[in-house]
Each structure stands twice: as C-alpha cells, then as structure tokens.
Amino acid sequence: MSGGPVAAVIGGGIIGSTVAWRMAQRGWRIALFEKGELGNEASWAGAGMLSPGGEVEERSPFADLCRHSRSLYGAYVEELVCKSGITIDYRECGAIDLAYTPVEWTLLQARAAVQQTIGIRSREISPARLQTFSPYVRTEGLAGALFYPDDAIVDPREIMQALRIVCVKQGVEISEHTPVEHIDVRSGQAEINGRPYDAAIVAAGAWSDRIEVSGVPSLPASEPLKGHLIGFDLQLGACPTILRHGHTYLLQRGTGRLIAGSSVEHAGFDRQISPSIAGQLKRKATAVLPVLEKLETADVWTGLRPGAQQLHLGRWHGSPLFLAYGHFRNGILLAPASAERIVAEM
Fold first, then answer.
1. Which residue from 10, 24, 213, 249 has the fewest beta carbons nearer than 10 Å?
2. pLDDT at residue 2 in the model
3. Phi and psi torsions of 67, nearest 5°
4. Do 122 and 1 form a contact (C-beta atoms < 8 A)?
5. What integer pLDDT is reported at residue 48 of this predicted model?
6. What is the pLDDT of residue 127?
7. Architecture of the structural domain at 92-150+223-306
8. Contact 10/204 with Cβ under 8 angstroms?
9. Can you list the pairs that 122-126 forms with residues at least 24 positions away whose Cβ atoms lie under 8 Å?
10. Radius of gyration of the chain (CA)
11. DSSP string, 39-95
C-alpha cells in the first residue's frame, strides 16, 4: 500500500465495510480484515428495520444518532445502487405499533408523546384505517394503533453485496478468513500481523473484545446477543408496513418473504436453532397477522447481535485505534452515521 495514509479495518459487517468504503473515498488506503466471509454474521441475519420509532424512547445522544442516520439512509442506498449496480430493496413504508390492551395503549401513547418532542413523528389510526395500511392485521380486541411514517426497511444482504463491490472498486484490500488477534499500538501507529498502519478501526461486532491490544487499555467488553428470526412465503402486499406488537415485529421483503422476529438470548456464541423459540415467535406473529396460522415456516435462522454496555464509536484513549461496535440491534440503521463519525474523527 502506498500513496496515502494507511488504515486497517477489523470486521467486515455493514459497519466495518461502510467505514472502509467511506475512508477509501477520502484517500485512505484500506486493508479490511474479516475472520469469516464479508457480511456473513449479524449483517446477514438482520431483518433490516430502520426504525427510530421502535427503538428510541427518550432524548439522548443515541436517539440523535439514530435519527441522523435514518436521515442519511436514502442517499446512502442511492449511492450504493449507483456505484455497485446492485438493486437494493429499500422502502420507506412506515411502521405501525399495535396495542391490544388498555395498558399497552396507554404506554404507547406516553412513549409517542415523548418521541414527538424529539422529532419522531407518529399519529393514531383507527381500526378501519389500519386495514388500509395492512389488510391482514388483527383488529379484534385492538385498543389503539400508531403509525410512524418515517420508519423504513432495507435488505441488509443486498446492502452487503453492494458494499463488497464498491469497496473493491475503491481499492480496499479485502482479506476474508483472516482473523486479527492482536493490535500493538506504539509510536503513533497500530501494528497488525507485523504491518504498521496509521490507524486501525475495530468493528468486529460481538467478537471485538476478543482482540488483544498492547500500548492502550483493553478494549471494552462486548457480547453476542443471540436472536431467532423466522420467515414465511406470502403474497406481496400482505404486510405493506412494518408491524410491531411489544417485542414482536413483522416486515415483508419485495420478494414476498415475510420476516418475523425476534428473540434476545444470552447464549454465548451458540448458533443452534431452538424449535421451541421458533414456535413462540410464530405464535406471537400469528397473533398479529392471523393469516400466518395456516402457513408452514419457510425458514428459521439465528444471528449474534453485538451487545455492549454502550455504543463505542470513536478514538480509543487518544491513540490511532478507533472503535465502532456495540450497536446491538441497530447496526443496519446506524451504519451511515457510524461511518460518518469515524471518518470525521480521522
């Protein structure tokens, strides 16, 4: 590598790949290291909701970052499509939060009132109006519903296909099946596998704290938070918007594949599928969309979300080491803003 500052990005999910692409656009020479295959971990497993309305409950720096990243997404996808030639399923379809008890409705209304003060729009919709948004949603026993017009969905697998192409076009050196186990920080550089870099960015998701470092304090803890998701094959238009009830959500891809999720399990790095958890997800999804009751589950999979006590995004102790992990279930949503912040600090 020659001709400009050199950086290593560790982790080839949507965060690391977007950071690598954006840095390469600004003249950095980038080596991207991925322990497996690009985008085959949490980014592959994610449903792809872009939903500050479902994630943010009060004003905070995290809330501001979510809203800002959502505002960047249309241009982010448009640029990826233009420069990669890959079609990306991205739809600004909105989301509906459902309440089937008076208590649930009171809680939704209270949350929405707080969200309105920080710029997250929603409005109440009647049961009759609800079925114009989503024709198969259960209205029996409905206590209330809120529509969030700014929530959206994207297919993260198509995002990753596009990111691979644009990274290669931008000169990023991608090394798959190449884990990074140690980073030696000294003399203003970060040494990895015997090669010095002007900067290194750790974006290895749940595996980030497994990287040993010298010359700086140990990296903050991260952990895998396992989640099950299930898929159904359904006619297009059956679920035009995101549907949410409590911790259950449903969305439909442009292919017709309907995705329902998701569990949160502290199970370490175990990826095994649990039929009982998949069954629970189907029951919860069917309670929202009864048409699913007679359908066989077409697919079940798990993913390991990158959990941490907080989002780590920025320079580590004034060194040439930068952190970009701990996004939990918001990695897809936060990719554009995370890359923007890292690049700004560089």
1. 213
2. 54
3. -65, -40
4. no
5. 96
6. 84
7. 2-Layer Sandwich (3.30)
8. yes
9. 122/53, 122/97, 122/146, 122/147, 122/148, 122/149, 123/147, 123/149, 125/96
10. 21
11. T-SHHHH---EE-HHHH--S-SHHHHHHHHHHHHHHHHHHHHHHHH-----EE---E
pLDDT at 307: 92
Domain assignments of the chain as residue spans, ordered by start: 6-88+155-222+308-345, 92-150+223-306
CATH number for the segment(s) 6-88+155-222+308-345 = 3.50.50.60
Cβ count within 10 A of residue 297: 17
**pTM, 2 dp:** 0.95
Cα four-point dihedral sign 195, 201, 205, 209: positive
Count Cβ neighbours within 10 Å for each residue of 144-153 and write b for 16 or more, e otherwise: bbbbbebbbb
Residue 262: is the preceding peptide bond cis (ω within 30°)?
yes
- The pLDDT tens digits for 58-85 are 889 999 999 999 999 999 999 999 999 9
